[in-house]
Amino acid sequence: MDSWGALTMLIKRQEAAKNRKKKLKFDLDKRKKNLQSNSVNGLEFKKVSESELKEIKSQIKSKSKRDNIKNLTINLLIFLICSLVLYYLVTQIKTNNLT
């Protein structure tokens, strides 16, 4: 193969690589556009009036308050039980050391 043949082979390889890259980019853009158009159609929500929206917000807030109170009481009970167990252990150790 002479030098011109090698040069034309190199140019053909580069063009083929460029074409592959262009085709991959086109396919990716097509898929991306397809996903975007499908996701917009899939996220259509029903229209909610202002009064319904206020009612939903109040329900969410009341549920959140109940959950917070429940979590607080559980944490306080756990803390109280741990404190009592620790106090009991400390008093038992002191009484055993004294005798």
From TrEMBL:
Keyword annotations of the record: Membrane, Transmembrane, Transmembrane helix
Transmembrane segments: 72-90
Superkingdom of source: Bacteria
Descriptive protein name: Uncharacterized protein
Species: Polaribacter porphyrae
